[in-house]
Amino acid sequence: MSKPRVIWWIRTDLRLHDNLALQAALDLGPEAFWPVWTWDPKYVYRTRVGCNRWQFLTDCQRNLSESITKLNKKSKLFLIREAPQTLFPKLFKAWKITHLVFEKDTDPYGKDRDAVIIKAAQEAGVEVIVKHGRTLWDSDELVEKNHGKPLMSISQVQAAGLKVGDIARPMSAPISVPDPGTTDMSFEQQPSIPKPDFQRDRERQDKSYEKLIGPNGDFAVPTLEELGIPAATSQIRGGETEALKQLNKILSDKKYTATFAKPDTAPTAFEPQSTTLLSPHLHFGSLSIREFWWGVQNVLKEHKGKHSEPPTSLLGQLLFRDMYFGAQAKLGYSFNQTLYNDHCRFVPWHLPSRVDHETKRVTGDYHIDSPEAEEWFQRWKWGRTGFPWIDALMRQLRQEGWIHHLGRHAVACFLTRGGCYISWERGADVFEEWLLDHESACNAGNWQWLSCTAFYAQYYRCYSPIVFPQKTDKDGAFVIRYCPELKDLPAKYIYEPWKAPLQDQKKAGVRITGDGKDPEKGTYPKPMFDFSERRNICIERMKTAYKVNLYGNDSKAIDGTWKTL
Ligand code: FAD
C-alpha cells in the first residue's frame, strides 16, 4: 500500500506547539506533507475585518511558515488564494492526496464550510481526520454533557467539563516535518484561462499564478499593501513566537498569575495593560489554550499563600471562553442575533429590520426609529460622544484593536441599556470589524451579557462614564493618551470637560463645542446627552421590556406586534 500523502489544513491553529491536528497528520507517517492555508471567501470578502486584524493574521502566518521551514528547508506554509470549496477537489486529484487533517471549528459558518469539504473529500476517496483543539473541552461534548443544552453559566461549564474528562496536557512542537510532494498548480491555468489572443489575455495568462499563489509564484504570505489593505495602526503583533514569549513572561510573575482577579484589574492601565492580552493569540491559535491552562495550573501548584478562584481568576477567564463557545455550538447562527434566538431577551430598541425568514438570518441594513439614535451611534463608533472615557476607549479600539474587558463593559453598556438604547447587534458589528481578538461566540455572548439580554439580568446596574474610570485613573492618563486634545485641562475636569469654565478651556488650548463631526483643531465635542437622564430613561424602558418578557424566537417579537403591547 502506498504511504499517506497528507494536507494539514490550518485555520484556527496557527502554531506548532500543542497542535492535535498537526500531530495526527504526522502520526500517519506521510511520504508527502503539505501545511496549507486557503483563502476563505467569507473571511476575505464578507466578514468585517479591519487592517489591524489582517496584520495580526499575516504575522501569525509568516511566523508559522518560518518555523516550518526551520524544521524542513523544503517546507513552509503553502498559502493558496482560493476558497477551499473549489480548491480542494482540484488539489486532491493533482497532488494525489490520501488524507486531509484539520482542527475542528465550531463556528456555525465553519461547520457548514467543513461539511462541504468533508463531502468533497469522501467523493475523492480522501480520508478526513478532524481533531478538537480550539477550546479546553470539545464544545459539542460540553453541550451533550449539559443535557443537550447551550452552556449559559460557568458552573454549567465546570459540571459538564468534569463529565467530559480531564483537559489534556499540552504537547511539544514536532522536531521535524516530512517533505512536501509536488506543488504544481498548472491544473489551475488550463481550464480557467483561455488561450491568449489579445495582449490583455496574454498578461492575464502571465500573471495567472498571482491569483492563487502570490506575485512570485511561491505561495507566500501576502503583504497588506499587496492586498490593497490600508497600513495597520496597532502595535500589537501576532505569531506563535510572540505568543509564547508573552505567556512565559506572565507565568514568570507567579504572584500575578496566582492572584489574578479580573474585577481588580484596571481598565485604564496601558503600557503595560493589566490583563494578559493573550486573546488575539487564542483567537488565531498562535497560542494553545491548554498551554495557557496548564501553565497557570503549574504556577498554582508552586504558589504559597492564597490564590484566586474562578470565575475571577485566570482559569476562570478561560472557562468563560468555553462557556460562550458551548452556547454557540448549540444555538448556531441564531446565537449571533436576537431574532430566532430563544435565549436572547427581546428588547424593543433600534432593531435590525430585514429578516430572511427562510434562512432565519438578519440581512441588509438597520432600521433606526429615531435619527437622533443614528447620530448617537456614529458618535459612539468614532469616539466623539463628548464623554472622554467612552471616546478614549473607542479610539483605542480603532487604533490598537484591543480594549480591556471592563472598558468593553463600559462602551457596551453605554451604547445599549445604559445610555443610547441602541441594539447590541450594532455594537457587536463594530467590534467585529475592529477587534484583533474578534471571536463570534465571545463577541455575541458578551454583548448579550452587557445588554442584559442573556446571561445577566441586573439592568439597573449601569457604568457611569464619569465615576467608574476615576476609581483607577483619577488624573485621566488613559484619556489623555487617546484624546490628547484634553491634555492640558485641569485633572478635575478630565471626565467632564464641559464643566470647565471658559477661562480654563482657553488656558488648556481646547474649546468644548460642537458635535465633533468636522472637528475644528483645538476643540472637543460637547456631551451628546445628559447621562443621568438617559440612564434613568433606559432603566425604565428595560423594566417594561422585562415585564413584557419576550424572547427573540417569540412570534410577537418577530412580526412586530410588540409595538402594540
Ligand atoms: P484576560 O483577562 O487576560 O483573560 C485571559 C483569556 O481569557 C482571554 O485572552 C480570553 O481568551 C479569555 N476571556 C477573558 N474574559 C473573557 C470573556 N468575558 N469572555 C470570553 N473569553 C474571555 N473576547 C474575545 O476573545 N473575543 C471577542 O470578540 C470578545 N468580545 C467582547 C465583547 C464585549 C462587549 C465584552 C464585554 C467582552 C468581549 N470579550 C471578547 C471578552 C474579553 O473582554 C476579552 O477576552 C479580554 O478582554 C481579552 O483580554 P485579555 O486577553 O487580556 O484577557
Give the SSE map:
Layout: E1 5-9, H1 20-27, E2 32-38, H2 41-46, H3 51-71, E3 78-80, H4 84-94, E4 99-103, H5 108-123, E5 127-131, H6 139-145, H7 154-164, H8 186-192, H9 199-206, H10 208-213, H11 224-227, H12 240-252, H13 254-259, H14 279-284, H15 289-302, H16 314-331, E6 355-356, E7 361-362, H17 371-381, H18 388-400, H19 405-415, H20 424-434, H21 440-450, H22 467-470, H23 477-482, H24 502-508, E8 511-512, E9 523-524, H25 531-548, H26 555-559
Parallel strand pairs: 1-2, 1-4, 2-3, 4-5, 8-9
Antiparallel strand pairs: 6-7
Helix pairs in contact: 4-5, 6-7, 6-16, 7-16, 12-15, 16-21, 20-21
Bound molecules: flavin-adenine dinucleotide (FAD).
Flavin-adenine dinucleotide (FAD) is lined by residues 262, 275-279, 282-283, 317-318, 320-321, 324, 404-405, 408-409, 412, 431, 435, 437-439, 442-443, 446-447, 450.
Report on the structure:
The chain has 565 residues and is mainly α. The chain has 26 helices and 9 strands. It has a 5-stranded parallel sheet, sandwiched between helices. A two-stranded antiparallel ribbon has the order 6-7. It has a two-stranded parallel sheet with strand order 8-9. It has helices at 20-27, 41-46, 51-71, 84-94, 108-123, 139-145, 154-164, 186-192, 199-206, 208-213, 224-227, 240-252, 254-259, 279-284, 289-302, 314-331, 371-381, 388-400, 405-415, 424-434, 440-450, 467-470, 477-482, 502-508, 531-548, 555-559, and strands at 5-9, 32-38, 78-80, 99-103, 127-131, 355-356, 361-362, 511-512, 523-524. It is globular, with a radius of gyration of 25 Å. Helix 1 links the parallel strand 1 (5-9) and strand 2 (32-38).
